[in-house]
Amino acid sequence: MNNESPRRSIAEIKKELEEAEFLERKEAYTKRLNYESIKNTAVTELCNKALQLSNSIASFKKESFEEINALHEILKDYSQRHANGLGNFRVHYGNFRVNYKKQGRPTFDEKSTEAEGFIKDFVTSKFENDDDVKDLIISLLERKNGEFDINLIQKLYKMEDRFDDANWKQGIKLMKESYSYEFSKDYITFEQKGKDGNWKQIPLSFSNI
Q1: Entry pTM
Q2: Dihedral-angle region of residue 18 (phi above 0 means left; psi in -120 to 50 means alpha; beta otherwise)
Q3: What is the rounded distance in angstroms from the CA atom of residue 114 to the CA atom of residue 170?
Q4: How far is it, in rounded angstroms, from Cα 13 to Cα 19?
Q5: What interhelical angle do 111-126 and 166-178 show, nearest 10?
Q6: What is the C-alpha to C-alpha distance for residues 198 and 192, in angstroms, rounded to an integer?
Q7: What pLDDT does residue 71 have?
Q8: Helix pair 166-178, 150-158: axis angle to 10 deg
Q9: Which sequence spans correspond to the domains of the chain?
Q10: pLDDT band at 83, cuts 50/70/90?
Q11: Fewer CB within 10 A of the end CB, N or C, for the chain?
């Protein structure tokens, strides 16, 4: 008895391979369609929720700054420390605390260059033979990134009454007039006191949650 399977022709084998390849492509196509469907749904739902959350945060930010700025104005009425509007401040009640911080940078306008000239003229004429004093005063006019350093300039202010000289007085006067503080951003952070008594910031961003 011959148990051998009947031999298939090349045409039959080719057909079987084509059918197998077709089924494989069909399965891959179905999987891709399923992935695309799941992806599209996930992206749409997440982005819509993100938009809602973003709008809520924007509204909360606006409300927060309006209330804190109003509180700051009241605080300035009776607090000399905050009278010029430059001070950061913190308010708390119970287990909650709000921190308000103004960020900016000191800057000097074109009058500072003229002031520098008057001060250098004073130093050159009065301390020509005293290198120590001359170098000290000139060092306080050192610039960082093209700007005078307010911490150094304030040391000049403290020396204002030490010299009775027209150039010196005019230089200090112009330097003070040229100074201003440019605000760039205001920040508000929120904190809650934990059971351990320590304050912890209430996170409002993914990276801190």
Answers
A1: 0.53
A2: alpha
A3: 9
A4: 10
A5: 160
A6: 8
A7: 87
A8: 140
A9: 7-81, 88-209
A10: very low
A11: N
